[in-house]
Amino acid sequence: MSEGAVKKEEKPRKFQAIRGTRDLLPPETTLWNRVEQTAHEVFATFGFGEIRLPIFEPTELFARSIGLDTDVVGKEMYSFVDDATPRLARVAYTITEWPDPTRDGDQFSAYKGCVSGFVEELEAAMANGEAPRSTANKQSLQDVKERYETLSATSLENDQSRRLALDCIRAIYLAVRIAELGDYLTLRPEATASVCRAYIEHGMQQLPQPVKLYYMGPMFRRERPQKGRYRQFYQIGAEVLGGSDAPAIDAEVIEMVMTFFDRLELQGVQLDINSIGDRNCRPKYVELLRAELLKVKDKLGPDSQRRIETNPLRVLDSKLESEQAIIATLPHIADHLCEECAAHYAAVKHELEMRGVFFRENWRLVRGLDYYMRTTFEITAQGLGSQNAVCGGGRYDGLVELLGGPPTKGIGFAIGEDRLILSLQESGKEVASGERRVASKERKEVASGRLGVDVYVAWMGERAHATAIRAAKDLRKAGFSVELPPVEQKFGKALGQADKLGAKYALILGDNEVSEGLWTLKTLADGSQAKFTEPDLLEHLRRQKAL
Ligand code: HAM
Predict the structure, then answer these.
(1) Which pLDDT tens digit goes with each residue over 288-300?
(2) Is the pLDDT at 438 greater than 60, yes or no?
C-alpha cells in the first residue's frame, strides 16, 4: 500500500449533527433571542414566573402522564438505563450475552465465576443503596442464587448433568434480565409532566393558588424529521396549577398566547378550540364512537383500525384523505357532554369573546396526549405546510393526582418555537427587526455571528493599536457592537472587511488621528466621512442610534 493510501485511510471522520437535530446559527439566533425575550416580557405581565426543569426524568413520569397508548410514549421517547453500578451492568451483560457457556470446561467454569460475581455485586449494591431494593431485584437475586447453587454442583461429564446445567443457565439468563441495575430515564418529550412533578416535589400547593409557571427549552421525540418537525425541538410553554377550574382561567391562558403572537406579529394565526369532556361523559362518548367506527372499520386505514381498540378519539385526528368523508359522519362530542362540561365549555367561549379572542370550534380537536380533559386548543400559523400547529394545549385536572399529588386543577399550552420562528421567517416578519434569514451563499460570511456590527475599528501603527483598544472598550461599554481586528491591516483591506461584515461605521485610527486627537468616522452606507474628538464621537453615535 502506498503512503498516500495510508494517509487517505487515516483521514478523520467528519461529524454531522444527528438526524433530526440541527445547529441554530447567527444571525438567526438573534430572532430566537427576541422571541424568547418577548415571551419573558409578555408572560410576566400575566403574572407567570419562569421554571427551569431537568432535561431528563424517570421514564415512568412520562409513561404515566402522557399515556402508554400515545405515539409519544409508544414510539418516540429517547430512553436509556442509567447504570448505577457500571461493573454490575457489565457482569449482567456478559452473562446474558455469553454465546455458549457449556462449550468446554474452561468456558463453563469462567461462566460459573461470572454468575457468582453477579450475586456478590448485586447483593453489595443493594446493601449500599447503589441498586434499588426493588421487588424485581430481590426476586432476581434469589433466583440467581438458587440456580447458582445447583449449577455449581453440575459438570459437563455426563448428559444428565449437562442438561441440568443448561436448565440453570436458561433460568439464570431470565433472572439476570429482570434485575433493575439502574434508573430508567428519558429525555423529556414535553414539559407538562415535569412541571406537575416539580409542583408536587416543592409543595407548591402551599403557595397562593393558582401557581403560574412558564418554561422554554429543548424537547426530544423520535419522529420522522421533515420541515417543522425535528427530533430535538424547542418549546415555550406555560402551566396554571391549583386553584379553581374557572373558565376565565382557560380563556386568560389562551389570551396570553394570542397576545404573545400578536406582539411578534405572527401572521395567519388561527385558534381552534374544543371540549373533550371529563371522566363522567367522555367514556360514554368514546364507546359510542368505537361502536360507530366498528361499523365502518373496513373502510379505514390500518392506523385508524388499530386506534378503534386503543384510542378511538385519535381517529378524529386522521389526516388521511380517504377517511375524511367517513369521519365527517361520526357523532360530535359536543352533543354528548355532561351538563357541567357543556356549561364549562360555553363559559370558556363567552370568556374568550369578552377578551376579543377570535376562535373556531373544531369538534375533531382531541390532542395526542392522554392527560387532557374539557378544554383543548390548537393554534396554526402561516407558512408551515403540513406541520402547521404552532401551539397546543388544554386542561388536565387530575394529572397532579395521578402523579401522587393532591387533587389539583391544571391547564397550559406549549408553543413549538422552531415552527414559530419558521412562520415569522416565511412571512418576512423577522426583517422588521433586522434579523435576516440567511441565504446559503451568505452563510459563510455570517456564520461567525458578526452581522449587526455597529463599528469596525480600522487601525494602523503601534500607537493607534493602543487607542483602538481603548476606543473599542468605551464603545462597547456604551452598548455598541464593535469589531476590533487583532492584527493591523491596510485601511483599504480593513474597509473591505467592514463592508463584508455589514458594519454601519468604520472608525479609522492612524498616526494622524492619534496625534491630532481627532478620529475619522466613515459611514459605510454612503461613504461620507467626518472627524470627531473622542467624547463627540460617542455622542454622535448615540444620537444616530436613537434616530
Ligand atoms: P404537543 O401538541 O405535543 O403538546 O406539542 C406542542 C407543540 O410543540 C406543537 O403544537 C408543535 O408546535 C411543537 N412540536 C411538537 N412536536 C414537535 C416536533 N417533533 N418538532 C417541532 N415541533 C414540535 C405538548 O407538548 C403539551 N405538553 C402542551 C401542553 C402544555 N398542554 C398542557 N400544557
Answers:
(1) 999 999 999 999 9
(2) no
Give the chain's end-to-end CA distance (angstroms, integer): 68
Strands of 2-98, DSSP E: 49-50, 56-58, 78-83
Atom 8 in ligand 1: which residue has the minimum CA distance? 416
User: What are the E-state strand segments in 188-256?
Assistant: 211-220, 232-241
Whole-number average pLDDT of the chain: 92
236 CA distance to ligand 1 centroid (A)? 9
| DSSP result, 471-482 | HHHHHHHTT--E
| Ramachandran category for residue 37: left, alpha or beta (phi over 0 → left; psi -120 to 50 → alpha) | alpha
- Closest by Cα among 212, 345, 331 to 278: 345
DSSP 8-state secondary structure symbol assigned to residue 17: P
Pocket of ligand 1 (CB under 6 A): 190, 192, 221, 223, 228-230, 233, 235, 237, 239, 389-394, 396, 412-414, 416, 418-419
The rounded distance, in Å, linking the Cα atoms of 498 and 270 is 43
Q: Atom 30, ligand 1: which residue's CA is nearest?
A: 413
Query: Given this model, what pLDDT does residue 442 score?
Result: 41
Distance CA 62, CA 76 (A): 11
Type of residue at 317:
D
> CB under 8 Å to 257, separation ≥6 — which residues?
238, 379, 391, 393, 413, 415
CA dihedral sign of residues 539, 541, 542, 546 = positive
**Residues facing 234 on adjacent strands:** 218
Number of the ligand 1 atom closest to the C-alpha atom of 379: 10
Stronger pLDDT, 107 or 6, i.e. the higher one: 107
217 Cα–ligand 1 center, Å = 12
The residue type of 468 is A
- Residue 533: per-residue pLDDT: 96
CA distance 145 to 132: 18
Whether the per-residue pLDDT at 436 is higher than 80: the answer is no
Q: String of b and e for 406-418 (b: at least 16 CB within 10 Å)?
A: eebbbbbbbbbbb
Tell me the CA–centroid distance for residue 244 and ligand 1, in Å.
25
For residue 414, report the distance from its CA to the centre of ligand 1, in Å: 6
Give the torsion sign (CA, 69, 72, 73, 75): positive
Question: Could you read off the pLDDT of 251-278 as tens digits, one per residue?
Answer: 999 999 999 999 999 999 999 999 999 9
Those residues whose C-beta lies under 8 Å from the C-beta of residue 361, and which sit 6 or more positions away, are 272, 273, 274, 334, 349
